[in-house]
Design a protein that fits this description.
By secondary structure, this protein is an alpha+beta fold. It is built from 11 helices and 18 strands. The two termini are 42 Å apart. 35% of the residues lie in helices and 22% in strands. Helix 3 packs antiparallel against helix 5, helix 4 runs parallel beside helix 5 and helix 5 packs across helix 11. The strands form 5 sheets. It has a 6-stranded mixed beta sheet with strand order 1-2-6-3-7-16, with helices on both faces. Strands 4-5-18-17 form a 4-stranded antiparallel beta sheet, with no helix packed on it. A 4-stranded antiparallel beta sheet has the order 10-13-9-14, covered by helices on one side. The structure holds zinc ion.
Amino acid sequence: MKKIVVSLFAVCLVITVQAQKMSLQGLSAEEKKVMEYIDANMPRAIALLKESVDINSGSLNISGVKKVGEIFAREFEKAGFKTEWVPMPASVKRAGHLVATKGFNSNNPSKGKKLFLIGHLDTVFEPDMPANPFTMLNDSTATGQGVNDMKGGDVVTIIALQALAQQGLINNANIIAYFTGDEERGGEPREIARGDFIARAQKTDIALGFEGANGLNSVATARRGASHWRLEVTAKTGHSSGVFTSLAGYGAIYEAARIVNEFREQLSHEKYLTFNPGVFIGGSEMSYSESKASGSAIGKTNIISPATTVTGDLRFLTEEQKNNAREKMKAIVSKNLPGTKANIIFEDGIPSMAPTPGNDKVLSVIDQVTKDMGVGGTVAGDPGSRGAGDISYIAAYVDCIDGLGASGRGAHAPGETINLKELPFLIKRAALTIYRLSK
Ligand SMILES: [Zn+2]
């Protein structure tokens, strides 16, 4: 206990130093009060982070996810939000989602934008993995399960809202904060797991995602989407001595290899497009189980392979890019070597968050926020550096910005860390962004 007190004291010192670095010249009097509130409440922010991190909430740990939801619901209520739990049917095998709402009354006079703030309660760490309780590694770095991805981002959202509520700056705002319980391992079918999420987002104008921040001067205006493909090749079989003749043909393995290699040759130079074969399995007798992502093969070097299966992903920045890539891949698949037949099946996963003029408009508000805070402007980060996320499900309906959460290292890996030196700045940036958009 003593150690924690010392550590929190050290963090406060660092935070004071950080606050002094910012000039805050461009801020209004009430905005400066918000900054002061955040500085004064950093020990509480870190205590809240510790409280939530020390409860395991792997996506499959239903009771753990709900417990973290209760903690954050308590904090949203302190900021004057109404909270509710959106349950999932038992068949989905996920906890459900926390929704906190302010405003949305028919007689609300606000002319500000309606906001949709996105967090998630779950982490990639299930209870059977080694525990990693919240620990200060030095005066400005802490580790713990989900400390960065994304309980840190959840805390950024909550403390920012509490700071604004405290100053009476969101009394008339229309804000929905939606913390999903299964971002890391989404429940199926997605229509059920994300149906309510999408429906509520459609009532708003702008979505702000609090996934990990990439430095102080960059946010995500676009994220790539993810999808899947499965290539099935069948071929005439026979003695290997006849391979390459028109009678015996080339076999399924050569044909699958040709196709995958041509994918790489023709499509690998396209910006933001990637595709990776994850399983490549062929032989004389071959079986593959999609649900287990595993298979077996028996073959002899003197038998031409009659069957090969390849499965892979396909990541893209826009629907157009995805569809064009699929057309090119289909054309490659159709040019079969003698004695072979090939078929490719595409399956949608998570849509992309495409870059749009609307997203850039929100970026310009954040750019002004960081300039007014005296830390320089904000630019759009590289969309290639981010995977798909919950915000992508609604990118077709509202303007979106992601990467407004905590900063740190090693998300999804044991020992992930949060940068506590940057945390107060990120909470302030979030508060000012929410205030200026919603007022
Ligand atoms: Zn995340």
